[in-house]
Amino acid sequence: MKALVLFSGGLDSLLAVKLIQEAGVEVEAVHFLQPFLPPEVEAKQTERLRRLMAQTGAPLRIVRLDEDYLRMLEAPKHGYGRAFNPCLDCHIYFLRRAGEMLEATGASFIVTGEVVGQRPKSQYKGAFPLIDREAGLEGLIVRPLSARLLPPTIPEEKGWISLDHCPSIQGRQRKIQMELAKKYGLHEYESPAGGCLLTNKEYGRKVEDLLRHNGRLDLDAMRLLSVGRHFRLSPEFKAVIGRNQKENRRLFFHFFRRRRDPQLLLVKTMSAPGPLALGCGRPSTADLENLAQLTARYSDLPPGKKTAARILGGGPEHRRLELPVTGTKDPSLPDRFRIN
To answer: For 14-73, what is each residue's pLDDT tens digit?
Structure first.
Protein backbone atom coordinates (compact mmCIF):
# COMPACT_ATOMS: atom_id res chain seq x y z
CA MET A 1 0.00 0.00 0.00
CA LYS A 2 1.34 3.42 -0.95
CA ALA A 3 0.25 6.98 -0.10
CA LEU A 4 1.06 10.30 -1.70
CA VAL A 5 1.71 12.97 0.95
CA LEU A 6 1.19 16.65 0.21
CA PHE A 7 4.37 18.19 1.65
CA SER A 8 4.31 21.89 2.52
CA GLY A 9 7.72 21.95 4.18
CA GLY A 10 6.34 22.50 7.67
CA LEU A 11 6.41 20.29 10.73
CA ASP A 12 2.80 19.13 10.35
CA SER A 13 3.38 17.58 6.94
CA LEU A 14 6.64 15.99 8.13
CA LEU A 15 4.70 14.40 10.99
CA ALA A 16 2.01 13.23 8.56
CA VAL A 17 4.71 11.34 6.67
CA LYS A 18 6.00 9.67 9.85
CA LEU A 19 2.52 8.77 11.13
CA ILE A 20 1.59 7.10 7.84
CA GLN A 21 4.94 5.30 7.69
CA GLU A 22 4.25 4.01 11.20
CA ALA A 23 0.99 2.57 9.85
CA GLY A 24 3.11 0.41 7.54
CA VAL A 25 2.36 2.40 4.39
CA GLU A 26 4.94 3.27 1.74
CA VAL A 27 5.14 7.04 1.27
CA GLU A 28 6.06 9.39 -1.55
CA ALA A 29 5.88 13.13 -0.92
CA VAL A 30 5.02 15.86 -3.42
CA HIS A 31 5.60 19.59 -3.12
CA PHE A 32 3.97 22.01 -5.55
CA LEU A 33 6.35 24.89 -6.23
CA GLN A 34 4.87 28.29 -7.02
CA PRO A 35 6.07 29.23 -10.53
CA PHE A 36 6.84 32.90 -9.85
CA LEU A 37 9.51 32.54 -7.15
CA PRO A 38 12.82 34.35 -7.81
CA PRO A 39 15.46 31.83 -9.00
CA GLU A 40 17.60 32.13 -5.88
CA VAL A 41 14.56 31.67 -3.62
CA GLU A 42 13.42 28.64 -5.61
CA ALA A 43 16.88 27.05 -5.37
CA LYS A 44 17.08 27.59 -1.60
CA GLN A 45 13.55 26.34 -1.06
CA THR A 46 14.14 23.20 -3.12
CA GLU A 47 17.34 22.44 -1.21
CA ARG A 48 15.58 22.97 2.14
CA LEU A 49 12.65 20.73 1.19
CA ARG A 50 14.94 17.89 0.16
CA ARG A 51 16.94 18.23 3.37
CA LEU A 52 13.80 18.14 5.51
CA MET A 53 12.33 15.14 3.73
CA ALA A 54 15.63 13.25 4.01
CA GLN A 55 14.86 12.92 7.74
CA THR A 56 11.95 10.60 6.89
CA GLY A 57 13.64 8.49 4.22
CA ALA A 58 10.71 9.07 1.86
CA PRO A 59 11.28 10.22 -1.73
CA LEU A 60 10.24 13.77 -2.62
CA ARG A 61 8.80 14.85 -5.94
CA ILE A 62 8.88 18.60 -6.65
CA VAL A 63 6.37 19.82 -9.21
CA ARG A 64 6.66 23.37 -10.55
CA LEU A 65 3.23 24.82 -11.26
CA ASP A 66 2.45 26.57 -14.54
CA GLU A 67 0.08 28.97 -16.27
CA ASP A 68 -2.89 26.85 -15.23
CA TYR A 69 -2.18 27.83 -11.62
CA LEU A 70 -2.22 31.52 -12.57
CA ARG A 71 -5.66 31.14 -14.14
CA MET A 72 -6.92 29.87 -10.78
CA LEU A 73 -5.33 32.83 -8.99
CA GLU A 74 -7.11 35.29 -11.27
CA ALA A 75 -10.61 34.21 -10.28
CA PRO A 76 -10.71 31.92 -7.23
CA LYS A 77 -14.16 30.48 -6.58
CA HIS A 78 -13.87 30.99 -2.81
CA GLY A 79 -12.23 34.42 -2.89
CA TYR A 80 -9.07 35.82 -1.31
CA GLY A 81 -7.82 36.20 2.24
CA ARG A 82 -6.37 39.38 3.67
CA ALA A 83 -3.82 39.67 0.86
CA PHE A 84 -3.98 38.02 -2.57
CA ASN A 85 -4.14 34.55 -1.04
CA PRO A 86 -6.93 32.26 -2.27
CA CYS A 87 -6.03 29.67 0.37
CA LEU A 88 -9.08 27.44 -0.04
CA ASP A 89 -8.88 27.38 -3.83
CA CYS A 90 -5.11 26.88 -3.67
CA HIS A 91 -5.50 23.87 -1.42
CA ILE A 92 -8.21 22.37 -3.62
CA TYR A 93 -5.98 22.95 -6.65
CA PHE A 94 -3.00 21.20 -5.03
CA LEU A 95 -5.12 18.23 -3.99
CA ARG A 96 -6.67 17.94 -7.44
CA ARG A 97 -3.21 17.93 -9.01
CA ALA A 98 -2.07 15.32 -6.48
CA GLY A 99 -5.13 13.22 -7.32
CA GLU A 100 -4.10 13.25 -10.97
CA MET A 101 -0.74 11.79 -9.89
CA LEU A 102 -2.13 8.80 -7.98
CA GLU A 103 -2.05 6.33 -10.86
CA ALA A 104 1.40 7.41 -12.10
CA THR A 105 2.94 7.13 -8.62
CA GLY A 106 1.17 3.89 -7.73
CA ALA A 107 -0.44 5.50 -4.69
CA SER A 108 -3.94 4.63 -3.51
CA PHE A 109 -4.77 7.70 -1.43
CA ILE A 110 -3.53 11.15 -0.40
CA VAL A 111 -2.29 12.33 3.00
CA THR A 112 -2.01 15.91 4.29
CA GLY A 113 -0.68 17.53 7.45
CA GLU A 114 -3.86 19.53 8.01
CA VAL A 115 -5.05 20.09 11.57
CA VAL A 116 -8.65 20.81 12.54
CA GLY A 117 -9.05 24.49 13.46
CA GLN A 118 -5.47 25.51 12.71
CA ARG A 119 -6.24 27.92 9.86
CA PRO A 120 -9.55 29.77 9.74
CA LYS A 121 -10.06 29.79 5.97
CA SER A 122 -8.92 26.33 4.88
CA GLN A 123 -8.40 24.11 7.96
CA TYR A 124 -11.63 23.85 9.88
CA LYS A 125 -13.74 20.75 10.22
CA GLY A 126 -16.57 21.99 7.99
CA ALA A 127 -14.19 22.89 5.18
CA PHE A 128 -12.72 19.42 4.76
CA PRO A 129 -15.78 17.79 3.07
CA LEU A 130 -15.99 20.76 0.68
CA ILE A 131 -12.28 20.54 -0.15
CA ASP A 132 -12.44 16.78 -0.70
CA ARG A 133 -15.52 17.03 -2.90
CA GLU A 134 -14.24 19.87 -5.09
CA ALA A 135 -10.88 18.13 -5.47
CA GLY A 136 -12.73 15.01 -6.65
CA LEU A 137 -11.21 12.97 -3.82
CA GLU A 138 -14.05 12.28 -1.38
CA GLY A 139 -12.95 9.67 1.14
CA LEU A 140 -9.42 9.47 -0.23
CA ILE A 141 -7.74 12.23 1.80
CA VAL A 142 -6.29 11.14 5.13
CA ARG A 143 -5.44 13.73 7.80
CA PRO A 144 -3.55 11.72 10.44
CA LEU A 145 -2.81 14.60 12.85
CA SER A 146 -6.53 15.02 13.52
CA ALA A 147 -7.56 11.47 12.59
CA ARG A 148 -9.72 10.79 15.67
CA LEU A 149 -11.72 13.98 15.19
CA LEU A 150 -12.77 13.20 11.62
CA PRO A 151 -15.02 10.60 9.96
CA PRO A 152 -13.26 7.43 8.77
CA THR A 153 -11.88 7.55 5.25
CA ILE A 154 -12.04 4.87 2.54
CA PRO A 155 -8.52 3.58 3.38
CA GLU A 156 -9.67 3.07 6.99
CA GLU A 157 -13.03 1.56 6.11
CA LYS A 158 -11.46 -0.91 3.70
CA GLY A 159 -8.79 -1.89 6.20
CA TRP A 160 -5.87 -0.56 4.17
CA ILE A 161 -4.59 1.35 7.19
CA SER A 162 -5.19 1.77 10.89
CA LEU A 163 -4.89 5.21 12.46
CA ASP A 164 -5.28 4.07 16.08
CA HIS A 165 -1.81 5.43 16.84
CA CYS A 166 -2.63 8.89 15.49
CA PRO A 167 -3.41 11.92 17.70
CA SER A 168 -6.46 14.19 17.91
CA ILE A 169 -4.85 17.58 17.42
CA GLN A 170 -6.98 20.67 16.96
CA GLY A 171 -6.38 24.41 17.03
CA ARG A 172 -3.08 26.23 16.94
CA GLN A 173 -1.33 24.68 19.93
CA ARG A 174 1.94 22.95 19.04
CA LYS A 175 2.68 20.89 22.16
CA ILE A 176 1.69 17.52 20.69
CA GLN A 177 3.53 18.23 17.44
CA MET A 178 6.72 19.03 19.35
CA GLU A 179 6.42 15.80 21.32
CA LEU A 180 5.93 13.82 18.10
CA ALA A 181 8.91 15.53 16.49
CA LYS A 182 11.05 14.39 19.40
CA LYS A 183 9.63 10.86 19.21
CA TYR A 184 10.41 10.55 15.49
CA GLY A 185 13.84 12.20 15.74
CA LEU A 186 12.96 15.17 13.56
CA HIS A 187 15.72 17.63 14.40
CA GLU A 188 15.13 20.13 11.60
CA TYR A 189 11.77 21.63 10.80
CA GLU A 190 9.86 24.87 10.53
CA SER A 191 6.96 25.40 12.88
CA PRO A 192 4.56 26.33 11.51
CA ALA A 193 5.04 26.26 7.74
CA GLY A 194 4.65 29.58 5.97
CA GLY A 195 6.26 31.97 3.57
CA CYS A 196 3.73 31.91 0.72
CA LEU A 197 4.31 35.12 -1.22
CA LEU A 198 0.58 35.51 -1.82
CA THR A 199 -0.05 36.00 1.92
CA ASN A 200 2.31 39.01 1.94
CA LYS A 201 0.12 42.12 1.75
CA GLU A 202 2.70 44.21 -0.09
CA TYR A 203 3.24 41.50 -2.69
CA GLY A 204 -0.51 40.96 -2.92
CA ARG A 205 -1.08 44.63 -3.77
CA LYS A 206 1.39 44.30 -6.63
CA VAL A 207 -0.36 41.20 -7.96
CA GLU A 208 -3.73 42.94 -7.71
CA ASP A 209 -2.36 45.97 -9.59
CA LEU A 210 -0.93 43.72 -12.30
CA LEU A 211 -4.20 41.87 -12.79
CA ARG A 212 -6.26 45.06 -12.78
CA HIS A 213 -4.17 46.78 -15.45
CA ASN A 214 -3.02 43.84 -17.59
CA GLY A 215 -6.23 41.83 -17.41
CA ARG A 216 -4.35 38.60 -16.70
CA LEU A 217 -1.31 37.28 -14.83
CA ASP A 218 1.81 36.05 -16.57
CA LEU A 219 4.91 34.41 -15.17
CA ASP A 220 7.44 36.99 -16.38
CA ALA A 221 5.57 39.87 -14.77
CA MET A 222 4.88 37.89 -11.58
CA ARG A 223 8.58 37.06 -11.12
CA LEU A 224 9.38 40.77 -11.22
CA LEU A 225 7.05 41.55 -8.32
CA SER A 226 9.57 40.44 -5.70
CA VAL A 227 12.27 42.75 -7.12
CA GLY A 228 12.68 46.45 -6.42
CA ARG A 229 10.28 49.31 -5.77
CA HIS A 230 7.10 49.26 -7.89
CA PHE A 231 5.32 52.32 -9.24
CA ARG A 232 2.20 52.72 -11.34
CA LEU A 233 2.74 55.85 -13.45
CA SER A 234 -0.40 55.44 -15.55
CA PRO A 235 -2.89 52.69 -16.46
CA GLU A 236 -0.66 51.77 -19.40
CA PHE A 237 2.74 52.00 -17.75
CA LYS A 238 4.52 50.85 -14.59
CA ALA A 239 8.11 50.95 -13.39
CA VAL A 240 10.39 48.89 -11.18
CA ILE A 241 13.40 50.62 -9.58
CA GLY A 242 16.23 48.55 -8.12
CA ARG A 243 17.15 48.89 -4.45
CA ASN A 244 20.68 47.48 -4.64
CA GLN A 245 23.26 46.09 -7.02
CA LYS A 246 21.72 42.61 -7.02
CA GLU A 247 18.30 43.96 -7.99
CA ASN A 248 19.82 46.25 -10.62
CA ARG A 249 21.44 43.18 -12.14
CA ARG A 250 18.12 41.32 -12.11
CA LEU A 251 16.39 44.20 -13.89
CA PHE A 252 19.17 44.48 -16.46
CA PHE A 253 19.05 40.78 -17.34
CA HIS A 254 15.24 40.86 -17.46
CA PHE A 255 15.51 43.64 -20.05
CA PHE A 256 18.42 42.05 -21.91
CA ARG A 257 16.65 38.70 -22.38
CA ARG A 258 13.57 40.49 -23.73
CA ARG A 259 15.31 43.34 -25.53
CA ARG A 260 13.18 42.87 -28.68
CA ASP A 261 10.06 43.78 -26.70
CA PRO A 262 9.07 47.38 -27.58
CA GLN A 263 7.11 47.67 -24.32
CA LEU A 264 10.24 47.48 -22.16
CA LEU A 265 12.79 50.20 -21.44
CA LEU A 266 15.74 50.74 -19.12
CA VAL A 267 16.59 54.00 -17.33
CA LYS A 268 19.79 55.19 -15.61
CA THR A 269 20.68 58.57 -14.13
CA MET A 270 23.87 59.99 -15.64
CA SER A 271 26.66 61.66 -13.63
CA ALA A 272 25.62 59.99 -10.33
CA PRO A 273 25.64 56.46 -8.88
CA GLY A 274 22.16 55.08 -8.57
CA PRO A 275 19.65 52.41 -9.52
CA LEU A 276 18.45 51.01 -12.78
CA ALA A 277 14.78 51.39 -13.53
CA LEU A 278 12.74 49.08 -15.75
CA GLY A 279 9.71 50.50 -17.51
CA CYS A 280 6.91 48.18 -18.66
CA GLY A 281 4.08 49.14 -20.97
CA ARG A 282 3.18 52.00 -23.29
CA PRO A 283 4.37 55.28 -21.71
CA SER A 284 3.24 58.79 -22.54
CA THR A 285 5.74 61.65 -22.61
CA ALA A 286 4.67 62.53 -19.06
CA ASP A 287 5.23 58.92 -17.96
CA LEU A 288 8.80 59.01 -19.28
CA GLU A 289 9.50 62.32 -17.59
CA ASN A 290 8.12 61.05 -14.28
CA LEU A 291 10.12 57.82 -14.53
CA ALA A 292 13.33 59.71 -15.30
CA GLN A 293 12.79 61.95 -12.27
CA LEU A 294 11.87 58.97 -10.05
CA THR A 295 15.08 57.21 -11.05
CA ALA A 296 17.08 60.32 -10.21
CA ARG A 297 15.23 60.59 -6.88
CA TYR A 298 16.77 57.28 -5.76
CA SER A 299 20.23 58.09 -7.12
CA ASP A 300 23.06 59.96 -5.35
CA LEU A 301 22.40 63.09 -7.40
CA PRO A 302 22.57 66.00 -4.92
CA PRO A 303 19.37 68.04 -4.45
CA GLY A 304 19.15 70.88 -6.95
CA LYS A 305 21.88 69.51 -9.23
CA LYS A 306 20.86 68.99 -12.85
CA THR A 307 21.84 66.14 -15.16
CA ALA A 308 20.09 63.75 -17.57
CA ALA A 309 18.51 60.32 -17.37
CA ARG A 310 19.40 57.97 -20.21
CA ILE A 311 16.59 55.77 -21.54
CA LEU A 312 17.18 52.67 -23.66
CA GLY A 313 14.08 51.28 -25.32
CA GLY A 314 13.45 47.68 -26.33
CA GLY A 315 12.47 46.65 -29.82
CA PRO A 316 14.30 46.11 -33.12
CA GLU A 317 15.77 49.65 -33.21
CA HIS A 318 16.68 50.07 -29.51
CA ARG A 319 15.67 53.71 -29.43
CA ARG A 320 17.66 55.98 -27.10
CA LEU A 321 16.53 59.11 -25.31
CA GLU A 322 17.89 61.50 -22.70
CA LEU A 323 15.66 63.58 -20.45
CA PRO A 324 16.72 66.35 -18.03
CA VAL A 325 16.39 65.61 -14.32
CA THR A 326 17.07 67.49 -11.10
CA GLY A 327 18.29 65.99 -7.85
CA THR A 328 15.68 65.81 -5.09
CA LYS A 329 14.86 63.83 -1.97
CA ASP A 330 11.22 64.95 -1.85
CA PRO A 331 9.21 61.93 -0.56
CA SER A 332 6.03 63.16 -2.22
CA LEU A 333 7.37 62.22 -5.67
CA PRO A 334 7.50 58.42 -5.13
CA ASP A 335 4.40 58.56 -2.91
CA ARG A 336 2.35 59.79 -5.89
CA PHE A 337 3.02 56.62 -7.85
CA ARG A 338 3.89 53.88 -5.36
CA ILE A 339 1.73 50.77 -5.62
CA ASN A 340 0.07 50.33 -2.23
So the answer is: 999 999 999 999 999 999 999 888 888 899 999 999 999 999 999 999 999 999 999 999
CA–CA separation, 210 and 298 (whole Å): 23
Count how many Cα atoms sit within 13 Å of the Cα of residue 148 in the half-sphere of its side chain: 7
List the domains of the chain with CATH numbers.
2-196 (3.40.50.620), 227-337 (no CATH)
Kindly report the pTM of this predicted structure: 0.89
Give the DSSP H or E segment for 240.
strand 237-241
Q: Name the strand (E) or helix (H) holding 308.
A: strand 306-313
Sheet-wide strand order for 264-269:
229-234, 237-241, 276-281, 264-269, 306-313, 320-326
Give the three-class secondary structure for 275. Answer: coil
Q: Is the dihedral of CA 209, 213, 215, 221 positive or negative?
A: negative
Distance CA(267)–CA(283), nearest Å, equals: 13
Alpha helix segments (H runs only) across 163-284 = 175-183, 201-214, 219-224, 245-257
